[in-house]
Amino acid sequence: MIILDHTAVLALCRGHRLLSGIAVVEVDDPAQRAHVPALCLVAAGLELPGVAVHVGALPGLEFLPLDFAASAAVEEITAAGADWRSAHAVFAAVSGAFEGQVLTAAPDAYDGTGVWAVDIGKP
């Protein structure tokens, strides 16, 4: 599973070519789309207002809710020292049936989490 954290969402909104390509390709199977954790979307929106409306219209993205189970896990991940902005991405990467890769402009944020962070560079 491909997961976009808040830095990747911001890069997408700023014209990152690879991420733009991923986000605009409509795929019938939601499992084959890139996934955006809700808390990462909120974190991006706090930095760049209007992000949610922009990325919500892109057909290649699937949004991961922050339900009770995810909230409890994200709380534990944050309490263990992870930044709250990336904690939902960590949860999404380790909780699914398949190991997820987090696309990010800040791969160091995932040190010690056991998550495979893929550096997207700058837009």
Main sheet specs? 3 strands, parallel
Instruction: Give the strand tally.
Output: 5
Shape estimate:
globular
Output the structural class: alpha/beta
Overall mean pLDDT stands at 92
Q: List the helices and strands in order.
A: EHHEHHEHHEE
Secondary structure: helix percent: 40-55%
The value of Rg in angstroms is 13 Å
Give the uncertain stretches in residue-range form.
none
Span between termini: 22 Å
- What spatial order of strands do you see in the largest sheet? 1-4-5
Total of helices: 6
Measured by DSSP, the beta-strand proportion falls in 15-25%
Walk me through what this model shows.
There is one protein chain. This protein has 123 residues and is α/β, with parallel strands linked by helices. It contains 6 helices and 5 strands; from the N terminus they run βααβααβααββ. It has helices spanning 6-13, 17-24, 38-47, 51-56, 68-79, 84-95, and strands at 2-4, 34-37, 61-64, 101-104, 116-119. Strands 1-4-5 form a 3-stranded parallel β-sheet. Strands 2-3 form a two-stranded parallel sheet. Helix 1 (6-13) crosses helix 3 and helix 3 runs antiparallel to helix 6 (84-95). The radius of gyration is 13 Å and the shape is globular.
